[in-house]
């Protein structure tokens, strides 16, 4: 069966893509953030995943308010990127894995997660920037991807509890895939930030640290909060932590303990308007 | 969820009411993913806005380049960010405008959060 080898969660701020395109990784503003990924590069070089399941949110590239799914899974052979309005150079397309995509779709719908199925999908900075952080200069990309998109644009959003259960269902789907492929799960976005309103610039380090710690020891901790409470605690875009939570849940909650160990983590304020974080967890079982 | 007033200060929850109110505005902003549309907006702003059927409040908010007005008119920040991109404005410019400080002050405030 396919093996889930680990989970990387990282912020996906558009400015990261811009900094990569301009080669600013060694600049003082950026260096600490980019250096935080060195242990991730080492781990990936050893772990050699075949495919990445990427849990992210679309920001108005593939989906608009005319038809906005709560959960969507890509099932394309290839995913293009495109201009999101800011002229940031695009990256090479990502190869898909339609067989794994359909296996996951079939499994999660059987488990009552009624996802939107997408045979055409363009992916935005929330996929491209994490991929560039994990595999700098990695084009053509060394892994295939299965994009899992979750609505964080239009309320009502899926609750943290629902996302946690969705992640667990994806985990069971991958674990039942008859293949010897090695799967890494990527969760993108967060951590605390707010772009809109008089509260723009809001950051909550204390909550971010609690959340990051919870992903190791008590992964369902954040499911006790309602969506509005999470907006209050983390900012209106900090709600993207549900994407981290979903990705973490793919690893499973484990038995007799959380069942994961932290390989690497970093937390840096600010990147643009955002408290930027990264965690790499691997299952201990 | 937001019928009884805003639960989070300084924050407009983009719920169904906002999405209905802002549909035309957000649809126009979505079109700015395409560079040709951005150029077309700059060439003839009035005609471009007319094509999307903006409400008078939305048209005024676009004219003022004012993010808080745009949000009040139903704009969602993810789409508004594409509008801001036309003028080379990033999320820190937008943050400064909404909080009534200069960009340098807004950046300093964020840096202070990191210490």
Looking at the structure, what is the overall shape of chain B?
Answer: globular
- Decide which structural class fits the backbone of chain B: mainly alpha
The separation of the N and C termini of chain B measures 36 Å
Number of strands of chain A: 10
CATH topology of the domain at 16-88 in chain B: Protocatechuate 4,5-dioxygenase, Chain A
Into which percent range does the helicity of residues of chain B fall?
A: 55-70%
What is the fold-level CATH name, i.e. the topology of chain A?
Answer: Protocatechuate 4,5-dioxygenase, Chain B
Radius of gyration of chain A equals 17 Å
Q: Name the pair of protein chains with the most residues at their interface, and give those residue counts.
A: A-B, 39 and 49 residues
CATH architecture of the domain at 16-88 in chain B: Orthogonal Bundle
The residue fraction in helices of chain A comes out at 25-40%
Brief digest:
By secondary structure, chain A is of the alpha/beta class.
For this entry, give a set of tags.
heterodimer; A: 285 residues; alpha/beta; Protocatechuate 4,5-dioxygenase, Chain B; eight-stranded mixed beta sheet; two-stranded antiparallel sheet; 10 strands; globular; B: 115 residues; mainly alpha; Protocatechuate 4,5-dioxygenase, Chain A; 9 helices; 0% strand
How would you describe this structure to a colleague?
The complex is a heterodimer of chains A (285) and B (115). The radius of gyration of chain A is 17 Å and the shape is globular. Chain A has helices at residues 14-22, 28-35, 38-47, 98-110, 125-134, 160-175, 205-217, 227-234, 241-250; strands spanning 3-10, 51-56, 71-74, 78-79, 94-95, 116-118, 144-150, 182-188, 260-271, 274-283. Helices cover 34% and strands 21% of the residues of chain A. With 285 residues, chain A is α/β, with parallel strands linked by helices. Chain B has helices at 16-21, 23-30, 35-43, 45-52, 56-64, 67-72, 77-86, 91-99, 103-113. In chain B, α2 packs across α7 (77-86), α3 crosses α4 and α8 crosses α9 (103-113). Chain B is globular, with a radius of gyration of 15 Å. Classes of the chains: A alpha/beta (285), B mainly alpha (115). Chains A and B meet through α8 and β9 of A and α2, α6, α7, α8 and α9 of B.
């Amino acid at each position: 069966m396919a093996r889930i080898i680990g989970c990387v969660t990282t912020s996906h701020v558009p400015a990261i893509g811009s900094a990569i395109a301009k080669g600013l990784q060694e600049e003082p503003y950026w260096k600490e953030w980019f250096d935080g990924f060195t242990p991730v590069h080492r781990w990936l070089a050893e772990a050699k995943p075949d495919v990445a399941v990427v849990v992210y949110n679309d920001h108005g590239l593939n989906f608009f308010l005319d038809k906005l799914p709560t959960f969507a899974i890509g099932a394309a052979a290839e995913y293009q990127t495109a201009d999101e309005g800011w002229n940031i150079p695009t990256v090479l397309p990502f190869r898909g894995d339609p067989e794994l995509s359909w296996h996951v779709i079939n499994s999660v719908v059987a488990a009552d997660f009624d996802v939107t199925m997408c045979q055409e999908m363009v992916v935005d900075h929330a996929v491209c920037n994490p991929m560039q952080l994990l595999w700098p200069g990695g084009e053509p990309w060394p892994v295939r991807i299965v994009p899992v998109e979750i609505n964080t644009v239009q309320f009502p959003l899926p609750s943290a509890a629902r996302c946690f259960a969705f992640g667990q269902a994806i985990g069971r789907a991958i674990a039942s895939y008859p293949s010897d492929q090695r799967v890494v799960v990527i969760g993108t976005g967060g951590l605390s930030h707010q772009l809109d309103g008089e509260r723009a610039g809001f950051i909550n380090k204390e909550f971010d640290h609690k959340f990051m710690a919870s992903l190791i020891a008590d992964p369902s901790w954040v499911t006790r909060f309602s969506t509005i409470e999470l907006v209050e605690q983390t900012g209106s875009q900090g709600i993207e932590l549900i994407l981290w939570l979903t990705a973490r849940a793919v690893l499973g909650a484990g038995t007799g303990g959380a069942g994961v160990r932290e390989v690497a983590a970093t937390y840096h304020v600010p990147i643009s308007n955002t408290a930027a974080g990264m965690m790499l967890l691997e299952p201990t079982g | 969820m937001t019928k009884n007033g805003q639960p989070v200060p300084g924050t407009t929850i983009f719920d169904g009411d906002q999405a209905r109110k802002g549909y035309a505005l957000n649809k126009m902003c979505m079109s700015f993913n395409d560079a040709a549309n951005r150029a077309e907006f700059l060439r003839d702003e009035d005609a471009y806005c007319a094509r999307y059927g903006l409400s008078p409040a939305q048209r005024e908010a676009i004219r003022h380049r004012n993010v808080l007005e745009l949000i009040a008119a139903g704009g969602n920040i993810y789409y508004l960010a594409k509008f801001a991109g036309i003028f080379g404005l990033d999320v820190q410019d937008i943050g400064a405008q909404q909080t009534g400080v200069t960009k340098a002050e807004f950046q300093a405030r964020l840096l202070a959060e990191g210490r």
